[in-house]
From TrEMBL:
The keyword Signal applies. Transmembrane segments: none annotated. One of its GO terms (biological process) is fatty acid metabolic process. Belongs to the 3-hydroxyacyl-CoA dehydrogenase family. Residues 4-172 form the 3-hydroxyacyl-CoA dehydrogenase NAD binding domain. PANTHER family: 3-HYDROXYACYL-COA DEHYDROGENASE FAMILY PROTEIN, LAMBDA-CRYSTALLIN HOMOLOG. Residues 1-17 form the signal peptide. This is 3-hydroxybutyryl-CoA dehydrogenase. InterPro entries: 3-OHacyl-CoA_DH_NAD-bd (IPR006176), 3HC_DH_C (IPR006108), 6-PGluconate_DH-like_C_sf (IPR008927), 6PGD_dom2 (IPR013328), NAD(P)-bd_dom_sf (IPR036291). It comes from Marinibacterium profundimaris.
Length: 306
């Protein structure tokens, strides 16, 4: 079987282990936290297997090892999912570069840090960012972002692996902070905080605009396709009619809004009234069930495409 190493077994690393094992890979996990990480990963694997109806035997393809060298032994791909700290990541990748076989791809799950800031290793040609959406066990998108030193073959191999696992990769042609998903997500959240902070609406109203409005279209169509369908002549017609308004709103948007801690606390309290922090795990399970249901709807929508 294809041998994979997962370095770091937090929520993202454990979910990656499920993805690789579900795809038939032999997965070795290394996490410096030891038993605590093992217990968390085992619980996540069991819950996700039940939830998705996956073959329970996949859990047997995941094993914990005691050293980084054991994890990388024979691996064709390494997926790092450790702390979002440049210095820590650089140290781990330098160690992995020395331990891994010459053909092993070294990939990072970093959610926003440009790879070139820590993938400056002797084997930089075989290293890249492969950023998933949490949890990758349920959400198929993965962003592949090379550094200026990444070899095209590394991107191609990683894309092939991800597609074989049932993931849906997108490729960036060059680096940018936050890649694609988080640049869009953080921009929307920042403008949402501007609207709440200036008293235009409540945090709950913002969430409803998404769940009962935009998300109903965005679950099966992206924003460009939505605009294309919202004008008689397609996207060019949409921009011709509404481009001026888009530019005006873009100038008045406050994605650099200077929110205060008091405002953050207020939004936190408002959201926590409906989703108590002490019940986050139950709400996360509810979220995951909804992700699966939405993916089933997406699959049916794909089957009905004209």
């Amino acid at each position: 079987m294809t041998r994979i190493a997962c370095v770091g077994a937090g929520l993202v690393g454990s979910a990656w282990a499920f993805v690789f094992a579900r795809g038939g890979c032999d997965v070795a996990i290394y996490d410096a936290r030891g038993e605590a990480a093992r217990d968390q990963t085992q619980a996540l694997l069991e819950r996700t297997t039940r939830m998705t109806g996956a073959d329970p035997a996949l859990i047997d393809r995941v094993r914990f090892v005691d050293t980084l060298a054991e994890a990388l032994d024979g691996a064709v791909h390494v997926q790092e999912s450790i702390k979002e700290d440049v210095a820590v990541k650089r140290g781990v990748f330098r160690e992995m570069d020395a331990l891994a076989g010459p053909e092993t791809v070294l990939a990072s799950s970093t959610s926003a840090i440009m790879g070139s800031s820590f993938l400056d290793i002797p084997g930089a040609a075989r290293a890249l960012v492969a950023h998933p959406v949490n949890p990758p066990s349920l959400i198929p998108l993965v962003e592949l972002c090379p550094t200026p030193s990444t070899a095209p073959e590394t991107v191609a191999r990683t894309r092939g692996l991800m597609e074989g696992l049932g993931m849906k990769p997108v490729e960036l042609t060059r680096e940018i902070d936050g890649f694609l998903l988080n640049r869009l997500q953080y921009t929307l959240v920042a403008e949402a905080m501007h609207l709440v902070g200036e008293g235009y609406c409540s945090a709950a109203d913002i969430d409803r605009v998404l769940t009962d409005g935009l998300a109903l279209r965005w679950s099966t169509l992206g924003p460009f396709a939505v605009a294309h369908l919202n004008a008689a002549g397609g996207f060019a017609d949409f921009v011709a009619h509404l481009g001026g308004m888009m530019r005006q709103m873009g100038q008045s948007a406050r994605t650099d809004y200077d929110w205060t801690q008091e405002m953050v606390d207020r939004i936190h309290d408002d959201i926590s009234a409906g989703i108590p922090v002490e019940k986050l795990s139950a709400w996360q399970a509810w979220r995951d069930e909804n992700i699966l249901e939405t993916r089933r709807v997406q699959a049916m929508a794909d089957d009905r495409r004209p």
